[in-house]
Amino acid sequence: MAQCCLNCFTDRAIIELIQREGNITRCSFCDSDEVLCVDPYKLTDLFELVLGCIVEDALGNEIQDVYVDELKIVSETVRRPYELISQIMGDVFNERRFSLNEGIVEYQDAWNAFKNHLIRENRFFPNNSLYGKIFINEINNEEAITKEATVFLQTVDALSRPRDNGSIFYRARVSESALGAHEMGSPPAEIASAGRANPVGIPYLYVAEDFDTCCQEVRPNNGAKVFVSRVIAEKDLKLVDLTAPKQKVALLKFQEEEIELTLKCLNLLQQFSEELSKPVLPEKSQLDYLPTQFICEYLRTISSYQGTQSYDGIVFNSSYGSGQNVVLFSDNTVTIEEPIAHTVTSVSVEVEQVLS
Q1: Are 325 and 206 in contact (CB under 8 A)?
Q2: How far apart, in whole angstroms, are the C-alpha atoms of residue 181 and residue 335?
Q3: Residue 134: helix, strand or coil by DSSP?
Q4: How confident is the model over 108-149, as pLDDT tens digits?
Q5: 226 within 8 A of 214, measured Cβ to Cβ
Q6: Among 72, 122, 211, 253, which residue's Cβ finds the most Cβ atoms within 10 Å?
Q7: Where are the beta strands (DSSP E) in 83-165?
Q8: Which residues of the chain are under the pLDDT cut of 50?
Q9: CB–CB of 213/321 below 8 Å?
Q10: Is 88 helix (H, G, I), strand (E, B) or coil?
Q11: pLDDT single digits (tens) 72-99
Q12: Is 259:73 a contact under the CB 8 Å cutoff?
């Protein structure tokens, strides 16, 4: 009989079940060898937890598409995802079409309205349905906090990841004159310009997980001089990982009645992540960054919720290759080493045709 392994899935609840009940053998679906595996039918109960979020839809997709493409429960390492889902869910869903219910995208639609509200209507005292449900300012008042806000905060905390004291990041600046370590940190508040994550006057420290990404993010010209510093964490950090929200949250660990609301929050965070990762364009108005700045400031200030450790920053995908960027809310949590000068010897450009 075919066996599936813990490498076939991204959801922690499924992985933990396989760790408890699996036997070491070869996986039939991702070809991992000598790994804990179970019969696919043992996962049926967990997979059925999300059926309340799925509706039959003649214009929808096969049930396998919903689990693989929409819910992101199956790992990209699986070679035959449709066959795997079929063995887990059985034949009852064959020849039928499904989609996530319309309510799942509610927050995505509300996010677009919220962005417009912040930019064009009221950026200091927003009066918007999404703000009223999620972005409340009384998170420590159990009587005031909404169910939606509670699940949103739980979802954010499920995306938090520790980075150990001593972890290394990279910070780059383009300059023709020599720079010292004291010039590689966040700018002073009085001259801090707005960025994709930080509002004007509130400096964050933008760093990258690796040297190459760090250099690409400053968009140097060929022949430019780039100064790069190693940035060392001086304490254990707690970062919100927005690189792949749907794959990083153990959706099936939430209570069944919270799964739909959690999916709404994940869709919102996924959209937020994608906007953070868009290339910074010189001609783009600073007003366009207001929505992402708003959420970053919210994440910076919700840290005392139910006694959780404060968030020190966020991680998101770079628009250059497969690297990752890190935004630290304060440079007091790190030590910045003396920078080393480098000269840019080549710049690569890739283009694709714009389809009308």
Answers
A1: yes
A2: 9
A3: coil
A4: 777 888 888 787 876 666 666 676 677 766 555 566 678 888
A5: no
A6: 72
A7: 98-100, 160-163
A8: 306
A9: yes
A10: helix
A11: 999 988 999 989 999 999 888 888 899 8
A12: no
> How many residues would you count in the chain?
356
136-164 burial, b for 16+ CB within 10 Å, e for fewer? beebeeeeebeebbbbbbbbbbbbbeebe
CA angle 308, 161, 219 (to 5 degrees): 120
Handedness of CA 239, 245, 249, 251 (dihedral sign): positive
DSSP summary character for residue 79: S
Which residue, 99, 80, 83, is CA-closest to 91? 83
What angle separates helix 106-120 from helix 259-276, to the nearest 10 degrees? Answer: 50
Q: Would you give the distance in Å from CA 111 to the centre of its chain?
A: 16
Q: Where are the beta strands (DSSP E) in the chain?
A: 4-5, 23-25, 35-38, 54-61, 98-100, 160-163, 168-174, 205-208, 225-233, 237-241, 313-317, 324-328, 334-336, 340-343
Amino acid found at 246: K
Contacts of 265 (CB under 8 A, 6+ apart): 107, 134, 151, 152, 155, 156
Q: What are phi and psi of 167, to 5 degrees?
A: -60, 145
